[in-house]
Design brief:
With 278 residues, the chain is α+β, with helices and mostly antiparallel strands. It is 21% helix and 29% strand. It contains 7 helices and 17 strands. It is globular. It starts with a strand and ends in a 10-residue tail after the last strand. The structure holds succinic acid (SIN).
Length: 278
């Protein structure tokens, strides 16, 4: 198995692994902990059952409430854009399930059908995002908490979106999650400090006025989008990319109109997140 870093600070590409092989799990898990994003190439023979079995090695599977499930496999969420559709699932920078009390540890996305060009996924290192802030800003953020919600994304407000009308997203009535997390978390694996706010699900910072909260979040979001903090995954059918939701943001690049992109995603349960003073 060859594991090659994708960038100076985030992600690695894996060749020569087979997710069906139990002996490959430990080196893959170690690489996952070290790099936060792992692109495992050429898993072309993998079935939905193999995907589920591999995901379950990381922890219990968290069944997504809102994505259309794969028929016969409720553990697998469909991430699909048909060639006539305009919007893609996950186009905004986000962290999967940050609206949950215990946000999903990680997500494992398997490429079934990819467009001839485009449709990459971008990632940001939230540990590097924290490390590259000034010490004064770091100290200020360490004392703060932020609210995250599913309501404005998957609830009634989303009812009229293309994704809902086409059946890709569902269960708006289940979008009832509002939760509070520290703005800076202690990463459960590494203990590293990671920023934990994101543009899609974070609704505000506690204890600040709306104007202050908006200004602070905008500054942080701009900071996080520096190319130096990013890694980009160019997909091939058969690849499986897994990412650590506590250490990253991600975004699906929607630049392949007229082509189909079809992925299967499984999310793995996480834990309640501690702030840095815990
Ligand atoms: C997601 O946001 O989970 C999907 C990312 C992608 O389709 O690249």
């Amino acid at each position: 198995m060859q594991i090659t870093p994708l960038t100076g600070g985030l992600g690695a590409e894996v060749h020569g692994a087979d997710i069906r092989n139990g002996a490959d799990f430990l080196p893959l898990f170690e690489a996952f902990k070290a790099h936060s994003v792992l692109v495992i190439r050429a898993q072309t023979e993998v079935t939905p059952e193999d995907h589920i079995a591999f995901a379950a090695r990381f922890g219990p599977i968290n069944v997504n409430r809102f994505f259309k499930p794969v028929e016969g496999h409720p553990e697998i969420a469909t991430v699909l854009k048909e060639k006539e559709q305009k919007s893609a699932i996950g186009e905004g920078w986000h962290t999967d399930h940050s609206y949950d009390e215990a946000p999903a540890m990680g997500s494992l996305l398997r490429a079934i059908e990819v467009p001839p060009y485009g449709g990459d996924t971008l990632f940001v290192s939230m540990a590097q995002a924290f490390d590259t802030l000034s010490p004064m800003m770091q100290r200020f953020l360490e004392g703060l908490s932020a609210c995250h919600s599913s309501r404005h994304v998957f609830g009634a407000a989303a009812q009229d979106s293309e994704a809902t009308r086409s059946g890709r997203l569902r269960n708006a009535e289940a979008a009832t999650q509002d939760v509070r997390h520290p703005v800076v978390i202690k990463h459960p694996f590494s203990g590293r400090k990671c920023l934990f706010v994101n543009p899609v699900f974070t609704t505000g910072i506690e204890g600040l006025s709306e104007a202050e909260s908006t200004a602070l979040l905008q500054m942080l979001y701009q900071h996080c989008q520096q190319p130096e903090l990013q890694a980009r995954v160019r997909w091939q059918a058969g690849d499986i990319t897994l990412w650590d939701n506590r250490a990253t943001w991600h975004k699906a690049i929607n630049d392949y109109h007229g082509f189909r992109r079809y992925m299967h995603r499984i999310t793995v349960e996480g834990c309640k997140l501690d702030g840095v003073s815990a």
